[in-house]
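Researcher: We're teaching a course module on how sequence relates to structure. For the next exercise, students receive a sequence and then see the predicted structure as tokens, so they can try to spot secondary structure elements on their own. Here is the exercise chain.
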Amino acid sequence: MSAVPGSAPGSGKPAGRFRRMLDRLSSSQQDLESQELREDAETAGCTRIGDCHDREIVTVTGTLRTVTLRPRAGVPALEAELFDGSAALDVVWLGRRSIVGIEPGRRLIASGRISIDRGRRVLFNPKYELRPLGRE
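Model: And here is the predicted structure for the students to work with:
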């Protein structure tokens, strides 16, 4: 069996710019957004959420998908789901009802110690930096 000229070795698929264009055309919008978020995390030098482990101190980045006010043990808590294209984690600010700029669709960088609560990664009261809206 012979390889296709201009193909990746052993794959039988076209390589380079044409292959990337075909991949983009055949991917869903959600796949494209996830890929962009993974690349953004890598560029920012952050840990991928999917690679975070319990009790590890990390810096992660992504987009807030949801923001809700949910009391924890009788104390107000602002909870947000941060997604970076690899996985999601819950970011929780205890004692807060709202924080200016923390809203769905906003990108941010958060730092702190990961914990696992009911099978989900959680970052309590992280240090955070809001990313500019739109293209940087």
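Model: If you want an answer key for the exercise: Residues 1-11 have pLDDT under 50 and may be disordered. The two ends are 47 Å apart (CA to CA).
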